[in-house]
């Protein structure tokens, strides 16, 4: 394959995953946007004119809303309203306004955990607001610490959240096992980890090296035993203080409870199955 073909492939839009569609009938849907961008890419490739793609991006970056494309706006501030709700303020050029009618919504698109996600929101700012618009985004955070078969009660909770298109709870699932072969339900866990709001990590106590693991597991797997420092690292990587769910052996539950208390979590911030 020639270098020019490689260059064109690098510019080719990526087809969305099923989990990236919220199923709310958004206009445009992530799949609508993908089809349009793919058609633009094919046209540019046929013309052998990469500037055509640049022109399309420039046209979509103006301040006027267009139902067929996305427009880039800067976030000027984020204010926490409640424990699980934040108000995002977006800048509009000059004294311009969104120009929406009462009850109309907008579709916001952004990158979360490396995935492109979009959701529909109705602005909470006044219809005649000039130079800005505001939306409320509600979300929670769960940290699941499971050992061996203790992962079982976590799965219904995980699936309930990922199957509910209106639930924007972020989940970090930490599964502790002896070896890679001992990880239960690998296909199901891998499928769940493809959702934009789910992170899956593994701690393998009897694996000495990650080199023999499939590459897709190496980045999110730790060897040895789960420690207070690792739990602290997981908590600090969350977007906000998480509520923690614990399930495993009696010894595991006691160790995890001790670690959570050591890092400053109170008893009302975790639950032991």
Q: In one word, what is the shape?
A: globular
Counting DSSP E segments of at least 2 residues, the number of strands comes to 11
Multimeric state of these chains? single chain
Give average pLDDT, whole number. 81
N-to-C order of helices and strands = HHHEEEEEEHEHEHEHEHE
Strand order in the largest sheet: 9-8-7-6-10-11
Largest sheet: 6 strands, parallel
**Beta fraction:** 25-35%
H/I helix tally: 8
Low-confidence stretches: 58-63
Q: In whole angstroms, how far apart are the ends?
A: 55 Å
Query: What is the SS-derived class?
Result: alpha/beta
Q: Helical percent range?
A: 25-40%
Whole-angstrom Rg: 22 Å
Relevant terms:
globular, single chain, six-stranded parallel beta sheet, 29% helix, 273 residues, 8 helices
Task: Give the helix/strand layout.
Blueprint: H1 3-11, H2 30-47, H3 51-59, E1 75-82, E2 85-91, E3 106-112, E4 115-121, E5 132-138, E6 141-147, H4 154-163, E7 170-177, H5 186-192, E8 198-204, H6 215-218, E9 221-223, H7 228-237, E10 243-247, H8 250-262, E11 270-272
Parallel strand pairs: 6-7, 6-10, 7-8, 8-9, 10-11
Antiparallel strand pairs: 1-2, 2-5, 3-4
Structural write-up:
With about 270 residues, the chain is α/β, with parallel strands linked by helices. It is about 30% helix and about 25% strand. The chain has helices at about 5-10, 30-45, 50-60, 155-165, 185-190, 215-220, 230-235, 250-260, and strands at about 75-80, 85-90, 105-110, 115-120, 130-140, 140-145, 170-175, 200-205, 220-225, 245, 270. The strands form three sheets. Strands 9-8-7-6-10-11 form a six-stranded parallel sheet, sandwiched between helices. The longest helix is centred in the first third of the chain and has 18 residues, at about 30-45. The N and C termini lie far apart (about 55 Å).
């Amino acid at each position: 394959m020639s270098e020019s073909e490689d260059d064109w492939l690098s510019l080719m839009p990526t087809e969305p995953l099923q989990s990236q569609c919220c199923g709310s009938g958004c206009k445009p849907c992530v799949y609508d946007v993908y089809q349009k961008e793919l058609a633009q890419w094919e046209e540019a490739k046929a013309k052998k004119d990469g500037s055509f793609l640049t022109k399309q991006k420039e046209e979509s970056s103006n301040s006027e809303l267009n139902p067929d494309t996305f427009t880039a706006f800067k976030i000027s501030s984020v204010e926490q309203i409640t424990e699980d709700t934040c108000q995002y303020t977006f800048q509009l050029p000059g004294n311009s306004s969104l120009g929406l009618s009462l009850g109309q919504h907008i579709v916001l698109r952004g990158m979360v955990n490396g995935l492109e996600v979009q959701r529909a929101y109705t602005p909470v700012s006044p219809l005649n607001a000039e130079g800005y618009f505001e939306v409320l985004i509600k979300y929670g955070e769960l940290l699941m610490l499971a050992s061996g078969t203790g992962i079982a009660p976590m799965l219904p909770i995980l699936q309930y959240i990922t199957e509910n298109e209106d639930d924007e709870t972020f989940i970090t699932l930490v599964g502790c096992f002896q070896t890679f072969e001992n990880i239960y339900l690998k296909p199901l866990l891998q499928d769940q980890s493809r959702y934009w709001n789910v992170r899956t990590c593994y701690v393998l106590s009897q694996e000495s090296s990650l080199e023999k693991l499939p590459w897709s597991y190496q980045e999110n797997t730790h060897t040895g035993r789960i420690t207070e420092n690792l739990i602290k690292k997981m908590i600090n990587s969350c977007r906000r203080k998480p509520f923690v769910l614990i399930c495993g052996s009696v010894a595991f539950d006691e160790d995890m409870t001790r670690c959570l208390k050591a890092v400053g979590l109170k008893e009302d911030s975790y639950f032991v199955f």
